TrEMBL record:
Residues of the VOC domain: 1-125
Pfam families: Glyoxalase (PF00903)
Source organism, top-level taxon: Bacteria
UniProt protein name: VOC family protein
Length: 129
């Protein structure tokens, strides 16, 4: 299952206004805005969704490389297995498995760049068992 998708944008204010207007009829709204001190890229991230976040736009990332898809994992072991398999398949490490407390205390994720440089993530939101 897809957990969330992120896009790099060149002008966060312009893109936020566009997506808020365009997605409102679908029941999608801004849930949270993360300031540059809390993001890995040092840019602003606008987190959108209905009941939970599933779409993110962010600046201060290269268009293309800032494209991001996160797949939801059932366990932390699955995140670890994703990371190992992705590296073995030719992916480049973009963040070893571990907790990302800036998102929430149980956000356990791993990141790789695929062969085209797209950032792919596996994330488990469950506490350690």
């Amino acid at each position: 299952m897809i957990d969330h998708i992120g896009l790099a944008v060149t002008d966060i204010a312009r893109s936020r206004a566009f997506y808020e207007a365009a997605l409102a009829p679908l029941g999608i709204r801004t849930i949270e805005v993360i300031d540059p001190s809390q993001t890995e890229s040092g840019g602003t991230a606008v987190m959108m969704g209905a009941d939970e976040i599933f779409f993110v736009i962010a600046d201060n990332e290269a268009i293309g490389e800032g494209t991001h898809v996160a797949f939801r994992a059932a366990s932390r072991d699955d995140v670890d297995a994703f990371h190992a398999a992705a590296l073995a398949a030719g992916g480049r490490d973009n963040g070893a498995p571990g907790i990302r407390k800036r998102y929430h205390p149980d956000y356990y994720a791993a990141f790789v760049h695929d062969p085209d440089g797209i950032n792919v993530e596996a994330v488990c939101h469950l506490p350690e068992s």
